[in-house]
Structures are given as structure tokens and as C-alpha cells.
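Researcher: Sequence recovery benchmark, item below. Answer with residues only.
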């Protein structure tokens, strides 16, 4: 049975999945360290939560700041028991249509930012010889995708591979690494209701249940995304283009 991970750092906690993770983990009595660029949103969230909640502004594309903020949180709390690498953006443009700047920003946030967060978290976990690294990837990691999400999907494939490599690195140690692959979840990134879009609260409830088991990888919510994973992997390109 995994141990209770008390001190939990969540990036991208000012909205959507990250903010709801904070609500649900606070309700479970965890001590929280929350960061995102929008400090007022974090402070507003903190004021609604029970228990001890630290907040700090952080832009994950400022890589030095990622190391500084993670170290400051670890120092203030004594240990960091779980780090959830969640900050991300969904902006992007089809490749070759003049959208390089947006696509570069997506890589900078979703991949380089995630790399900095994993490095900073693992430095702390290696020193402690304990900790649970949770990387929020996406179902989009499973397949190269067309249109506005080509770069987004590539960044998520990259973070899945990054998490897998770290997991292999720490085999035989007490450190655990979980890759979470959400399907569509209602958030600022995905505000419109739709057939496959899960509401934030139940989707994050499923995410918390999965993360607590500390598996290698989790599709969230499990239905329908676990069943759709092999379909997405093998869908012919023509059909993929029509459905995405
Ligand atoms: N919603 C979905 O359907 C879905 C599906 C699969 C995976 N995901 C993943 O889930 C994660 C959370 O997304 P969400 O759906 O909850 O979207 P969201 O509501 O837009 O939340 C994104 C969070 O990331 C933060 N963020 C963005 N850029 C940042 C930066 N440069 N530095 C620090 N924080 C930054 C935002 O805070 P600030 O703006 O305050 O910085 C915000 O708190 C992302 O990694 C996303 O790729 C979402």
C-alpha cells in the first residue's frame, strides 16, 4: 500500500485541473504548495481551502525560477512528498501556417517547463530518497495529431517519454513516477461542453483516485479513455483527420 504523501506541490494550480486537484487534496488533509503565474487566483483559491496552503507566483518558462520556487517550498515544508507537474497550455497552430511563435511557446511551457519541473522535483526526491512525481500528459501523447494540436500532442508525447525515462532511472528506489493521461476535461483550456468532455470535479476525482494508487500510467477518467487508447493508436490517418 503506498504511503500518504503529505506535502504536495501542484503547478498550474490557478485554474482547471490544477485548482481542482488543490481543492480535493486539501479536503484530504494534505499540505499544499501551489504555483502558477496568476498569484491573485492562487491567493483567492488558498483562502477557500482548509489546512496549510503555500502559494508562489511561478512562470515555468523561467527555468531558474522553477528550481528556486521548488527549493523554497521544500525548505519551508521540510519535505516535498509529491510533485504534480501540471502547468500547460493548449495554444497552437497547424505546422507551416505562420504559427511558429505559438507552437514554440507550447514547447517552452509544456515540454521545457515540464523538464525543469521534473529536474527540480527529482533533485529534491533523490536527496530525500523518497517522493512521488506525477506528470500530467494527455491522451494526445498517444498519436501525432493534425491541425492546431500537432505541437501540443508532440509535447505530451515528449513528457510521457520523459516520465518513463525517469521511472526507469529510479527502479529499485522508493521514488515513484506516474504519468497521467487525461482525456477531454472541462477547464480554461477546454471550456466548451461536448460529448466526450468530462466535468472537472468528477474527472479530477478519478485522477486523485488513480494518483493515490501510484501506478506507472493512468488514463483519466478510465472510461472511455482506456478503451479508446488502442483505437486512437491504430486509427487510419484519414479517420484521425476527420475526428480531431
Ligand atoms: N483539459 C483537458 O482536456 C486536458 C486534457 C489532457 C491534458 N490536460 C493537461 O492538464 C494540464 C492542466 O490544464 P487544464 O486543462 O487544467 O487547463 P487550464 O485551466 O488552462 O490550466 C492551465 C494551468 O497551467 C498554468 N500555466 C500555463 N502556463 C504556465 C506557465 N508558463 N507557468 C506556470 N503556469 C502556467 C495556468 O496558470 P497561469 O495562467 O496562472 O500561469 C493554469 O493554472 C495541462 O498540462 C494540460 O495539457 C488537459
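Model:
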Amino acid at each position: 500500500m503506498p504511503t500518504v504523501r503529505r506535502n504536495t506541490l501542484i503547478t498550474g494550480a490557478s485554474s482547471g485541473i490544477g485548482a481542482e486537484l488543490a481543492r480535493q487534496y486539501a479536503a484530504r488533509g494534505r499540505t499544499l504548495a501551489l504555483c502558477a503565474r496568476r498569484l491573485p487566483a492562487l491567493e483567492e483559491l488558498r483562502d477557500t481551502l482548509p489546512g496549510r496552503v503555500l502559494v508562489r507566483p511561478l512562470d515555468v518558462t523561467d527555468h531558474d525560477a522553477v528550481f528556486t520556487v521548488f527549493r523554497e517550498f521544500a525548505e519551508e515544508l521540510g519535505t516535498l512528498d509529491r510533485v504534480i507537474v501540471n502547468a500547460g497550455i493548449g495554444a497552437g497552430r497547424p505546422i507551416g501556417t505562420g504559427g511558429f511563435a505559438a507552437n514554440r511557446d507550447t514547447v517552452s511551457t509544456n515540454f521545457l517547463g515540464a523538464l525543469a519541473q521534473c529536474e527540480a522535483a527529482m533533485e529534491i526526491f533523490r536527496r530525500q530518497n523518497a517522493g512521488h512525481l506525477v506528470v500530467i500528459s494527455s491522451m494526445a501523447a498517444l498519436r501525432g495529431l493534425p491541425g492546431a494540436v500537432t505541437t501540443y500532442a508532440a509535447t505530451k508525447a515528449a513528457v510521457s517519454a520523459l516520465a518513463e525515462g525517469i521511472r526507469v532511472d529510479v527502479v529499485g528506489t522508493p521514488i515513484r513516477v506516474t504519468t497521467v493521461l487525461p482525456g477531454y476535461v472541462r477547464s480554461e483550456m477546454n471550456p466548451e461542453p461536448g460529448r466526450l468532455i468530462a466535468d472537472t470535479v468528477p474527472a479530477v476525482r478519478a485522477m486523485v483516485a488513480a494518483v493515490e494508487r501510484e501506478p506507472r500510467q493512468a488514463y483519466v477518467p478510465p472510461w472511455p479513455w482506456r478503451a479508446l487508447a488502442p483505437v486512437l493508436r491504430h486509427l487510419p490517418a484519414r479517420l484521425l483527420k476527420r475526428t480531431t
